Amino acid sequence: MNDVLYSVDDGVATVTLDRPEAMNSLTVRMKTELLEALNRASQAFAVRAVLLTGSGRAFCAGQDLNEHAANLEAGRGLNDTVREHYNPIVRTIAEMGKPVIAAVNGVAAGAGASLAFACDLRIASEKAKFAMAFTGIGLAPDSGASWTLQRLVGPARAAELLLLGEPLDAARAMELGVVSKVVPAGELEAAARALAVRLAQGPTAAYAATKRALAFAADSGLGEALELEADLQDACAKTDDHLNATRAFLKKERPVFEGH
């Protein structure tokens, strides 16, 4: 990989978008490498949490417009990048059976913001800024933004952000619930890693079940949600983590989760 860095430590896979000279804007190669890295993290048993971030002063500025403009001039339009690249990336993040944290270190625009929205948790530098830049260049939202953003801030606020495209600074993003924590720029890496390690030391199967329950309940009736909860609880009750945690609780000890 050249444009996406991948490393594993303490059960955390860190995936770093690494085109700082281009604000980590997404080319075909970078999108391909990102999907490969996310699939690698998803399939590795040793990985129990994923941290997604960017190098330099941006998290991700979205689609690389030089590549996009070349496709337009050649009559290729979007070159099917939404279906071929963005959709699989977002589904891999959202459906991964492990928690995914976005450490938003700077600008997150367009598809870059959408990637952060698809993650389970977002922690931001005080220098972070989110921009729904789609309508500004005559496009509709993609990469799941129409689905994720309204679940974060509500339908009315999502419509405002997507239609007007006005950027959110870190403080406003925190106020609206887009991010769960804002920290000084120099503290972001340590704070995000501490959160990722905490999740990596937790009950991985229970986290996967929680992600599945939340996604299902967002589009289901109460009865259906209750039924899935029952199924998921039955499955979690059979895990070693649940059995060992219950024993530890009764002994007034701190549980140690092994992820199975």
UniProtKB/TrEMBL annotation:
Organism: Planobispora siamensis
Protein name: Enoyl-CoA hydratase
Family: Belongs to the enoyl-CoA hydratase/isomerase family.
Family matches, as SUPFAM superfamilies: ClpP/crotonase (SSF52096)
Ranges that cross the membrane: none
Molecular-function annotations in GO: catalytic activity
Domain of life per record: Bacteria
Taxonomic placement: Bacteria, Bacillati, Actinomycetota, Actinomycetes, Streptosporangiales
